[in-house]
C-alpha cells in the first residue's frame, strides 16, 4: 500500500503528529473541531461535494458530523479508510472518488471545521481513532523494533492470528446457520393463530439456508486445504508429525459430515414445504448440523492449542535453512493468504461478516499488509464496503452473523 502513502500536502497540518483524543487540529482561523460521538455518522446526512482542479473540496450544506474521504477509486488507502470508518461509526460516510487529488492520493476530512488531512494509511487511521473514541480501534499498533530473534516470532504470530480469525469466522457462520435452521424447525410445527393450519417454511428461506451453509462450507474446505498445503509440510519437517497426522485425520472425518448436510439441504428443496416429511428432514438436519458444530469447535481448539504454538519453531527452522530473508517478514502470511483464493475474492464480504468489528480490523490489517496485488486488494475492500453500507450500527457491532442474514434477505 506504499504507492498511496503520501507526504503531507503543503499548507495542511502534519498528520504524523498524534491528534488529541477529543480534538483535532484547526484550520485557518484557529477554531477547534467539536467532539463527535462514535455514532455521529448515523445521524449525519449525505451532502453534495465538489472538488476543484487543485484537489480542494467545496461542500454544500456541510455539517460537523459528516466525515469525507476524497481519493482515487483505485487507491487501496482510500478504500481502507472507507471500510474502517464504516466499522468505526457503523454508518455510511460520504466518499468522493477524485482523480483531482495529487497523484490520486486520499484526503480525509473528519468534519467541516477540520482541515483536510493527507498521510499514510496508519497516520490517517490514528486520526480516526482519536476523533471517534471507543471500539473498534481501526489503526494497527505501532511496529516494535525488529531483531533477528523477534522476526521469527512476529512472522509466526501473523500466521497464527490469521488462522485463529479464520476459525472464528467459520464458527460464527455455523452458529448463524444453526440459528436459522432452529427457527425454521420451530416455524414448521407452529400453528397459525385462529387458522388451524401449519405455518410452512417458505422456499426462499430454504434457498437462503443453502446459500449460507454452502459459503461457510467453501471457506472451511479452503482453510483446511491451506493448512495441508502450506503449514503441515513444514510442521512435519520440524519434527512435529503427530500433530499433523491427527489434524488431517479430523479433516477427513469432517468432509463426509459437511457433504451430508449439503445433500440434506438439497433434499429439502425437492420436498413439499410444510409436509411431515419436510419437517422430519428439517429436524434431522438440525441434529447433524449440531454434531458438525461440536466437532468443528473441538477441532479448532485442538489446532490452536497443539499446532499454532509450534509455528515459531517452524519459522526458525525455515530461517536456518536459508529459505527466508529477514526483509520478507510477512511472506509467510502472504503465502497463507494467497492459498485461500476463493475466500479472499468472491467470498471475502461473507467471510468478514463472521468477525466482530475488532477482529475484522485485525484481519483487514493483515490483508492490507500481505496482499501484493493492488488491484485485487481494492476489489476486496470495495466489495466489503458495499456490504457494510447496507447494514446498520446494531447489527455490525453486536452480532456479525445477523449482518449476513440481513444481507441474505436483501439479496435477489
Characterise this structure:
The chain has 412 residues and is mainly α. 57% of the residues lie in helices and 5% in strands. The chain contains 13 helices and 5 strands. A 3-stranded mixed sheet has the order 4-3-5, with helices on one face. A two-stranded antiparallel sheet has the order 1-2. A hairpin with a 5-residue loop joins strand 1 and strand 2. Helix 3 runs antiparallel to helix 4, helix 3 runs parallel beside helix 8 and helix 5 runs antiparallel to helix 6 (276-307). The longest helix has 41 residues, at 148-188. It is flat and about 65 Å long. Mean pLDDT is 77; it is low at 1-63.
Q: How much strand?
A: under 5%
Question: Could you estimate the helical fraction of the residues in percent?
Answer: 55-70%
- Broad shape: flat
The average pLDDT score comes to: 77
Radius of gyration: 24 Å
Number of helices: 13
Query: What is the strand arrangement across the widest sheet?
Result: 4-3-5
Number of strands: 5
User: Which structural category do the helix and sheet elements fall into?
Assistant: mainly alpha
Distance between the first and last residues' Cα: 35 Å
Helices and strands, in order, run as EEEHEEHHHHHHHHHHHH
Amino acid at each position: 500500500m506504499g504507492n498511496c502513502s503520501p507526504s503531507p500536502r503543503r499548507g495542511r497540518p502534519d498528520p504524523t503528529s498524534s491528534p488529541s483524543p477529543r480534538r483535532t487540529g484547526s484550520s485557518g482561523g484557529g477554531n477547534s473541531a467539536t467532539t463527535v460521538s462514535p455514532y455521529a455518522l448515523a445521524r449525519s446526512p449525505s451532502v453534495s461535494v465538489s472538488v476543484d482542479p487543485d484537489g480542494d473540496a467545496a461542500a454544500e450544506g456541510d455539517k460537523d458530523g459528516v466525515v469525507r474521504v476524497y481519493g482515487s477509486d483505485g487507491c487501496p488507502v482510500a478504500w481502507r479508510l472507507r471500510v474502517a470508518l464504516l466499522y468505526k461509526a457503523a454508518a455510511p460516510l460520504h466518499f468522493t472518488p477524485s482523480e483531482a487529488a495529487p497523484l490520486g492520493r486520499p484526503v480525509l476530512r473528519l468534519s467541516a471545521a477540520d482541515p483536510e488531512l493527507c498521510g499514510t494509511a496508519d497516520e490517517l487511521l490514528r486520526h480516526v481513532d482519536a476523533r471517534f473514541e471507543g471500539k473498534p480501534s481501526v489503526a494497527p499498533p505501532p511496529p516494535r523494533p525488529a531483531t533477528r530473534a523477534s522476526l521469527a516470532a512476529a512472522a509466526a504470530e501473523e500466521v497464527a492470528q490469521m488462522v485463529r480469525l479464520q476459525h472464528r469466522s467459520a464458527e460464527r457462520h455455523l452458529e448463524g446457520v444453526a440459528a436459522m435452521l432452529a427457527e425454521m424447525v420451530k416455524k414448521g410445527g407452529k400453528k397459525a393463530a385462529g387458522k388451524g393450519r401449519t405455518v410452512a417454511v417458505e422456499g426462499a428461506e430454504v434457498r437462503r439456508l443453502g446459500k449460507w451453509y454452502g459459503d461457510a462450507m467453501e471457506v472451511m474446505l479452503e482453510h483446511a486445504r491451506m493448512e495441508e498445503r502450506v503449514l503441515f509440510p513444514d510442521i512435519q519437517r520440524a519434527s512435529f508429525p503427530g500433530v499433523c497426522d491427527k489434524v488431517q485425520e479430523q479433516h477427513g472425518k469432517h468432509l463426509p459430515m459437511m457433504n451430508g448436510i449439503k445433500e440434506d439441504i438439497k433434499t429439502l428443496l425437492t420436498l413439499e414445504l410444510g409436509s411431515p416429511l419436510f419437517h422430519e428432514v428439517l429436524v434431522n438436519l438440525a441434529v447433524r448440523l449440531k454434531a458438525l458444530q461440536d466437532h468443528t469447535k473441538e477441532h479448532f481448539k485442538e489446532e490452536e492449542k497443539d499446532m499454532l504454538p509450534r509455528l515459531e519453531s517452524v519459522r526458525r527452522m525455515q530461517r536456518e535453512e536459508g529459505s527466508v530473508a529477514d526483509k520478507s517478514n510477512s511472506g509467510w502470511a502472504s503465502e497463507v493468504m494467497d492459498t485461500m483464493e476463493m475466500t479472499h475474492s468472491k467470498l471475502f464480504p461473507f467471510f468478514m461478516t463472521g468477525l466482530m468489528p475488532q477482529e475484522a480490523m485485525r484481519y483487514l490489517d493483515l490483508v492490507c499488509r500481505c496482499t501484493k496485488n493492488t488491484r485485487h486488494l481494492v476489489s476486496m475492500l470495495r466489495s466489503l464496503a458495499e456490504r457494510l453500507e447496507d447494514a446498520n450500527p446494531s447489527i455490525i457491532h453486536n452480532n456479525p452473523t445477523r449482518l449476513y442474514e440481513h444481507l441474505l434477505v436483501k439479496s435477489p
